[in-house]
Structures are given as C-alpha cells and as structure tokens.
Amino acid sequence: MTDQTTEPLLDAREVRSLLHCSLPFVYKLADRGRLACVRWDCLGDKDGRAKTMVRFKKNDVLHFIERHYKST
Questions:
Q1: How wide is the angle at C-alpha 14 spanned by C-alphas 9 and 16, nearest 5°?
Q2: Within a domain: residue 2?
Q3: What is the helix (H) or strand (E) element at residue 9, kind and residue range?
Q4: Which residues neighbour 31 within 8 Å (Cβ) at sequence distance 6 or greater?
Q5: Where do the H-state alpha helices sit in the chain?
Q6: Quick check: is 16 in a domain?
Q7: Taking the mean position of all CA atoms in its chain, how far away is CA 48?
C-alpha cells in the first residue's frame, strides 16, 4: 500500500543539480549528517563489494538551502 502524499526520493545526482555542487560533496554532507538522507544496504556489484543506496527528500534539501542561505 502506498501513500499518495509521499514524495519521490531524489538520488545524489538530482541533489547535486539542486545545490549546483559536486557529487562527492553531496555524499560528504550525507555522511556527516548535515543533509538528511535515507540509507540502505543493497546487493554488491560484480566485484562483490557491498553498496549503500542513499536517497534524499526534496523538502529536506530545500530546508538545507534555507538554513544556509545568507543575504548580504
């Protein structure tokens, strides 16, 4: 059962576009807890390495922008 009010999650590339920054910077923000995200482990790739999926709520990204906005 899905909730019709749930917004789709953004991947790191979509967040990068919103913030106009690098992809590694998006992951650093998430790793350091500066930008809220959802994480879950998924099956490894061909090399057998475990991967972690990271997704973001658009509203959380917009709040991040507002918290760090400074007018001059």
A1: 130
A2: no
A3: strand 9-10
A4: none
A5: 12-19, 23-31, 58-68
A6: yes
A7: 24
pLDDT in tens, the chain (72 residues): 455 567 899 999 999 999 999 999 999 999 999 999 999 988 766 777 778 899 999 999 999 999 999 877
Residues linked to residue 41 through DSSP beta bridges, in sequence order: 52
Domain count, the chain: 1
Tokens read off for 72: 């001059």
d(CA 51, CA 43): 7
Does any domain span residue 18?
Answer: yes
d(CA 42, CA 49): 10
Residue 22: which domain range? Answer: 9-68
In a domain, 34, yes or no: yes
